[in-house]
Amino acid sequence: MKRQILSTLQLILIISIFSNTEQLEFWLTDPDAKVFFQQQPSILPNTNYKAADNIITINANEKYQTIDGFGYTLTGGSALHLHNLDNTLRAQILQELFNTDKNNIGVSYLRISIGASDLDEKVFSYNDLSPGETDVNMTRFDLGYDRLYLIPILKEILAINPNIKLMGSPWSPPIWMKSNKNSIGGTLLAEYYDAYALYLVRYIEEMKKEGITIDAITIQNEPLHPGNNPSLLMIATVQAQFIKQSLGPIFRKHSINTKIIVYDHNADHPDYPVTIFKDHDAKQYVDGSAFHLYAGSIDALSTVHEQFPDKNLYFTEQWVGAPGNLKGDLVWHVKNLIVGATRNWARTVLEWNVAANSKLEPHTPGGCTQCLGALTIDGNQILSPRNPAYYIIAHAAKFVRPNSIRIGSNIVSGLPNVAFQRDNDMKKVLIVVNENHSGKQTFQIQCDDKIYNTSLNGGSVGTYIC
């Protein structure tokens, strides 16, 4: 009798395990229903296997690019706000952002500024000199200001996730290297190409001494926008010349393995990276190109891929303008970036930026005054609910881990979507947004040989795992 009971219990357990493997895990953000990135009841397969017209079919046989990660720019201002939290609250929010357990979002990629961005409390470089001075050998190079906030926060993040990837982007070289001797605009003087290349080498080396590995750098943030503070004008032919004459050879000389990524600006000028890739002497040093979407169309990334499929693509910045509109921002960003950028070969999607306060500070004089962070931090308080960029990234970062592969899924009208397959457990992840702000959409998902019925309210986003 006892043996029979054990067998029955074992049978129930086997049935339960088998049933769970067929269930579709479902996470939802629905602003109208005040559901903010919350797990929903799992969805059981449709037992009659009848497919509807509006069915999204996941096709793991169609394989595209490998994913490096999803995340944010950790500006100096973001680091300042995080650093100023008390130890307990800071530990809690860093776990929430960078740990993948439970309801944390598991950010896997960060972009940081090399020197100041426009969301620092002041303009600085790592080699600021008095007027008329130069230091071509970088004897006075000093990470300086970054040691106050950015480096301590990065070390705490790396303690949570040692595998997080970091991209560095400069907003400007030291002003003594520039034509106008000013943090705003100007060009990099040719006589300082080698000095600036060495400056970037020293940055990578000094960060490494701090235990911080820079996986990639872009050469210049928004090189066609010299009006920000800091900023620099660097046209494509100049960037190519700088790479082949100085940066590439000096990286090799110093055995720097950090990836070199070109452009880092809007999708309206895919000709910029193409110009560099057509220069064989420059191309050999370059891993790929990076894009923003303040102008142009996201499918411009595919035009670069089609011409140079051996070069990687990255999406590195998009802001949410204050005060933010969760429903509208969620739809636009998920459709164009989480779905659009990855469907057009991007290995990363990064939002700008991690945190600001309610006054949208800090920023440099002339820097962005309306950039809404993923978090609003006022003193020792983190406001809830989180801001749109938090949820935009959460729907991808938690589930689409680094080394996942984008796989095939068909387009259904009104339901932009993208699918991935993870490499650790081979599970498939489908992200879907209902771009119709007012209408509920009922649809089906086919994963392997199972069909699932589901729906999304207008303006909501679902992540499904099977």
UniProtKB/TrEMBL annotation:
It comes from the Eukaryota. GO terms for biological process: glucosylceramide catabolic process. It is an enzyme of class 3 (hydrolase). Residues 1-23 form the signal peptide. InterPro entries: GH, GH30_C, Glyco_hydro_30, Glyco_hydro_30_TIM-barrel, Glyco_hydro_b. Residues 404-464 form the Glycosyl hydrolase family 30 beta sandwich domain. The keyword Chaperone does not apply. GO terms for cellular component: membrane. The keyword Ribonucleoprotein does not apply. It catalyses: a beta-D-glucosyl-(1<->1')-N-acylsphing-4-enine + H2O = an N-acylsphing-4-enine + D-glucose. Keywords: Glycosidase, Hydrolase, Lipid metabolism, Signal, Sphingolipid metabolism. Belongs to the glycosyl hydrolase 30 family. This is Glucosylceramidase. It comes from Adineta steineri.
